[in-house]
Amino acid sequence: MTDTKEDNFGVIVIGTGFGGASCAALLANKGIKTLLIDKNKFFGGKAFTTTIHKHKVDFFSHLLCMGGAGEIGAVLKEINAFDRIKFLQTKIGSLFIYDERPVDIKANMNFGTIMKLIEWMDVKEQAQLQQVMDAFAFLVKMQEHQFDQIYNLTVEEWLEKQFPNIPVTFKDFLTLWCGMMFVNPAKYSSAGEYARYFTRILNSKAAGYCSGGIGYIPELMAKTVEENGSVVKMGETVEKILIEDGRAVGVQTKEGNIYKADAIVSNVGIQPTVLKLVGPEYFSKEYLAYVKNLIPSFSGVRIRYFLSQKVIDKKYGSILVYGANHNVKFDWNTMSKMTFEELMEPINLPVFTSIPSNFDPNLSPPGEQAILATAIAPPNPSRKQWDILFDKIEDNLFKSFPQISQYIEYTDKANPKAISEISGRNIVTEILPGVGGEAVGLAQIPEQVGYNKPSPRSPIPGLFYVGCDANVYPGGGGVGLEQATNSGRNTARLVFSYLFGKKLRTL
252: pLDDT confidence band, cut at 50, 70 and 90? Predict the structure, then answer.
């Protein structure tokens, strides 16, 4: 993108993830001179798209749970870019494989789909059949005040309380959605957050993908930043956020450049921003303790298979392969008492699989296919024993699709260390061992959602956070990229108000 010698801006946004890119695009669209800067040479942070062996593939598996009908679409409309991208859906929907039993689930969760699910779950007793039907009806019709009432419960606690007699297979189905949505197990995730956004996904009936790959969305947002007369700098690393007279006034990069601005927005994460980019000396002991004690989401491991032939012809939006884990009583916190292998050995690891070219055929060469298989993992980028998770991915995937192994031309793997390096969160790993490789940002546990979500406003005037680590409430939250983009919209409003007030104070 274009270069400039201008070093004074209204706002500097660090990071082109969905939160940073949307925030920068909205501010530039409002006439604020904006600098969007990223240490990577690609857009999207952890959600970027790249070309490998002539396939256009994402870094990890992604599905746009709201398609163009949610926050992402709203931002693109506001910056007049909605018609420059196509949101794609598949009529087939997704494939679920539970204990080697498959079922197709259409994106439109209608009565027929629900009855198909019930048959697949092997629900035969009339009483259990009615319980499943009642549970679906309850979920779809939940009101806003009902979500607020269960924010302090975990998903596991709420399901036991609300639906104590539903079949175990149905409970497994619901908890699997939690892991897929939040990259966080049902044992820890907020029930209110889960129910609110699970029902929104069901009711929107718009889940899908986009043309050009997932990374094209933040790239398009960044293009509009420049089109509105602002600046985008890629491949330049912010090393320090500058504080003068108690206010954030600019950034210094690893390359030795200094850029000044009236406001700074960090998409790097609240912990790396406070502890490294700014420095602990600028914050109170209470705030530092609060930041250090924030809990990250889980991470993931991923295998990309590049195949010489198509092996999955049906245009599934996503494929979920999993098995019954309801009798396995495990806790990631017990890892210190046993080896990683001992902890994982009994677990039937859920595998989320995506095939981007099933939505957009232009993403893979004709007749070929790229398959991305992802599974949940602890966020520790320093851990070494990832092979057990990679083996479990292949066991589950090849059991359901043995033909994949026959046509593999190339594979590549990624673990939490790769995530931490791309996101830039690895700069806090030495300060906070086990932190840095989180897939989403902060875990959506009861203590960190709703009114408990960290504020986008830092204690330092002019310094803001954006992305899945910070948001306003009511309304601030969501699933993955939707959540990040929602934060981008809300933080942009706060920054705009701050700049307006700062200007008034100088008059």
Answer: very high
